[in-house]
Write a structure and sequence with these properties.
heterodimer, A: about 90 residues, mainly alpha, DNA polymerase, domain 1, 5 helices, B: about 475 residues, Transcription Termination Factor Rho, Rna-binding Domain, Chain A, Domain 1, 20 helices, about 70% helix
């Protein structure tokens, strides 16, 4: 990713703690709502999904698209921020 | 597949989801697990045993089954697999699946589906568009080859190459095929022989043309059989061979086009490859690399043409010919001998080819191309930029003025400075004036005094004298 959003930087800067799913880069209100409806209310739940998909970008993107209808950019943002977070804190 | 999960060990929710996945009506929510297990056994396990396990294993190696009953096994539903089966299936395709749990299952199912689809399409000659033609064509060539007992294996290789390339260029093939029927006709009649650049193989000369039709028919009959064979061959053929053979293939294709019949073509290929490997081979190889995809098109054309040639009469071929790269370039070996007639026309095609290298082919043989940009004044890059909007002389003047004008800030500054100086001068001038005036007055006064004094002195002197 050439440039990262402020949201991305904020998320990657610290342990995610109890942040909501909307704190993830690429996940705004709409997608956040959808994810919450499906039980992914916290960022760490999405992280869990991310990890259980073995950090595979393609699969995670697919999943995100299926789950909340994220577009390519949103998928990329979300994947990027989780990936970076994992690199930093895992 | 070896693992059959006992539904009794599955969780209730799992059973439920499986049932839903199989479109089995769920029992009332309150019902016990046993009921779910029962339903599971009845609906799902049966099905798995019936079409799944067997299918799954055959998936990769055995495409024939798939072909025979495409409706049934077209896409084995990944949803019917258990988690472990799904994982195994993915592994089968070289994907190391992570844990398959509730939230990941859908993702992996999708992945498996994706993996299965290209697999099938590739093997059956891929793209749905080409399905109608694809199989029979390849086989025809093969059949001919076998029939004639040349069986150098080169043909096979050739075809395998064809099939592979066909997969890649499946989209193009349709057009090419349609086109081909029209295109090859002229060759058959011998109206458009190509200038021969390469040494024709001796076999070509000897080969009687009378067999062609019968052979082609025969080919079409056996097409189904051969398709399977060709497929298997594709897998087996090593890369090195295939490339060498590709050269042959091209030449074969070229030859085949003019004749319009498979047998001729195949003969040309095999014989050529076996005997005439020389400088020409190198040349062809170079060409072939760039033209592999197109060669496949030509291949198809040939095949299609076999079927259609008898019916259709060669009329509008010239146009169609121009569009085909392959036929034009590779026709050499056969054409001169069989129809050694009018060389000049072929070169013309080449020229047209050069002019319209990228023309696509259309089913009707009539093709419209995008008008090429005129290489005259129209395309010449603009050398001077003209102002976008016409500017009146007045505005030009104004602009000029503005350019020369001192910036307003400086103007104000200068004005203020001037004002200050003037004020300063004015203020000082007052003082100076006053001083000057005073001094002037005093000067006058003192002069007067002096004169007065002098007068008085004078008077005193006068008086003193008096």
């Amino acid at each position: 990713m050439s440039s990262t959003s402020q949201k991305h930087k904020d998320f990657v800067a610290e342990p995610m703690g109890e942040k909501t799913v909307m704190a993830l880069a690429g996940i705004g209100e709409v997608l956040g709502k959808r994810l919450e409806e499906k039980g992914f209310d916290k960022a760490y739940v999405v992280l869990g999904q991310f990890l259980v998909l073995k950090k595979d970008e393609e699969l995670f993107r697919d999943w995100l698209k299926d789950t909340c209808g994220a577009n390519v950019k949103q998928q990329g943002d979300c994947y990027g921020c989780l990936k970076e977070w994992c690199d930093a804190f895992l | 597949m070896p693992f059959e999960e006992d539904p009794a060990y599955l969780s209730k929710s799992r059973l439920k989801s499986d049932l839903v996945a199989h479109n089995v009506a769920l029992p009332p929510a309150a019902s016990k697990k046993e009921i779910y297990v029962e339903l599971h056994l009845k609906h799902i396990d049966q099905r798995n045993a019936a079409d799944f396990s067997s299918d799954e294993e055959d998936l990769v190696p055995d495409v024939a089954d798939r072909e025979e009953d495409p409706d049934h096994t077209e896409i084995p539903d990944p949803r019917t697999l258990t988690d472990d089966e799904l994982k195994a299936a993915l592994l089968h395709h070289g994907v190391k699946a992570g844990p398959i749990v509730g939230t990941t299952r859908a993702v992996y199912e999708k992945k498996l589906k994706k993996l299965l689809q290209p697999d099938e399409s590739g093997k059956v000659n891929g793209a749905e568009k080409a399905v109608v033609y694809s199989d029979s064509e390849e086989e025809e060539e093969e059949e001919v080859e076998e029939e004639e007992q040349k069986a150098d294996g080169e043909e096979e290789v050739e075809e395998s190459v064809c099939t592979e390339s066909e997969k890649q260029t499946a989209e193009q093939t349709d057009l090419a095929k349609q086109e081909s029927s029209q295109a090859k006709l002229p060759y058959q009649n011998g109206s458009f022989p190509y200038l021969q650049c390469f040494m024709p193989s001796s076999r070509l000369h000897a080969r009687p043309t009378s067999n062609r039709e019968s052979k082609s028919k025969w080919n079409s009959r056996n097409a189904v059989k051969s398709s399977e064979r060709s497929r298997s061959r594709c897998k087996e053929i090593p890369v090195g061979i295939s490339r060498a053979s590709s050269v042959d293939q091209h030449s074969g294709l070229g030859s085949g086009v003019p004749s319009g019949s498979q047998s001729v073509m195949s003969n040309g290929c095999s014989s050529f490859s076996s005997q005439a490997f020389s400088i020409t081979q190198m040349v062809k190889e170079m060409e072939s690399r760039s033209l592999i995809s197109s060669s496949t098109d030509a291949d198809r054309e040939l095949n299609v043409s076999n079927v259609q040639e008898h019916r259709s009469q060669p009329i509008r071929l010239q146009i169609a010919d121009r569009m085909k790269n392959q036929s034009v370039y590779y026709t050499p070996q056969d054409s001169p001998h069989k129809w050694g007639a009018q060389p000049p026309q072929e070169p013309m095609k080449d020229i047209i080819k050069e002019i319209f290298p990228e023309t696509g082919t259309t089913p009707t043989g009539i093709h419209a191309t995008r008008r090429r940009p005129i290489k005259g004044a129209a395309q010449r890059p603009v050398q001077y930029g003209y102002p976008a909007t016409p500017v009146s002389p007045a505005t030009l003047e104004r602009r000029e003025m503005e350019r020369r004008r001192v910036p307003i800030r400086i103007q104000i500054l200068v004005f203020l400075i001037m004002a200050c100086i003037l004020y300063f001068i004015y203020v000082n001038l007052e003082d100076i004036c006053v001083v000057l005036l005073d001094s002037l007055n005093q000067g006058f006064d003192s002069e007067d005094g002096y004169s007065l004094q002098a007068e008085t002195e004078d008077t005193q002197v006068v008086s003193g004298q008096d």
